[in-house]
Design brief:
Blueprint lengths: L2 H9 L5 E3 L6 H9 L2 E4 L15 H8 L4 E5 L8 H5 L5 E4 L14
Parallel strand pairs: 1-2, 2-3, 3-4
Helix pairs in contact: 2-3
Length: about 110
C-alpha cells in the first residue's frame, strides 16, 4: 500500500474523500474508492474523461456501485446530455454559483 492509499484509508475515517481535478487513471481511481474515497467532485471537469480504452476517473465512478458523483448541471460546465448517461441514483446535482448572462450589444 503506497502513501496515498494509506492517507485515503486514514482520512476517510473522519472526512469524506473526493477525487477532484485529477489525471488519475481508472485503476488508480478504483483503488482510491477501495481505500475509502466516496465521490468525485465536478465529474467530467478537469479530470480524465471516459474513453473506450482508458475509462479514467469518470469510468471508475460510473463502475463503482457505492461512489457518488457531483455533476454541475448547468449546460455550460457539462453538456446536458451527460446527465442522462450518469447514474441518477448516485448523482449529486450541484450548482457552481455562476450567474450566466448573454452580453447585450450596445446600440450605436
Amino acid at each position: 500500500m503506497c502513501i496515498r492509499d494509506r492517507f485515503i484509508k486514514k482520512a476517510s475515517k473522519s472526512y469524506v474523500i473526493s477525487l477532484a481535478h485529477t489525471e488519475a487513471s481508472f485503476d488508480e481511481s478504483k483503488k482510491a474508492f477501495k481505500y475509502g474515497a466516496k465521490q468525485v467532485t465536478h465529474m467530467f471537469n478537469a479530470m480524465t474523461g471516459l474513453n473506450h480504452r482508458t475509462p479514467g476517473v469518470v469510468g471508475a465512478v460510473l463502475d463503482d456501485e457505492k461512489a457518488m458523483a457531483e455533476l454541475i448541471c448547468d449546460g455550460i460546465h457539462v453538456h446536458l446530455s451527460l446527465i442522462h448517461i450518469s447514474e441518477p441514483t448516485r448523482l449529486l446535482s450541484i450548482s457552481y454559483a455562476v450567474f450566466c448572462l448573454k452580453k447585450k450589444k450596445k446600440k450605436k
